[in-house]
Amino acid sequence: MRRLPGRAIFLLDGLGAILSAFGLSVLAYHEDLFGMPKNDLYLLLVVAVLLSAYSLSRFYLNPPKWQTDLKRLAVVNVMYCGLTLFFVSQHPKQLSSLGYAYFAVELTVIVALALVELNVATRRQ
Prior knowledge:
Blueprint: H1 6-29, H2 31-34, H3 38-61, H4 66-90, H5 97-122
């Protein structure tokens, strides 16, 4: 299996964050269907957009010490998951099954991505 180039992981993360932002905007539009309050979703959406901007800027700028940036990104992704879990735990009765399913999938994907990022950032070049 071919290794993913270090720089490409930033593109993958940035596009994933854009997809998360889009998903969160759908949840906000259909608050009654998913159950998460709009204010919480908007905060998560802003964080996703900022993470996307950071990731895509690292991809395009291709800094020489990209491994440090990738480690930082992995940590911030896990922090985003923590914030998401906090919001989910604050609204257990409001969230619908669809809301729980969305966040379960999103968190699983982001944690898996963070683990890949740490792996890529620490492997020998």
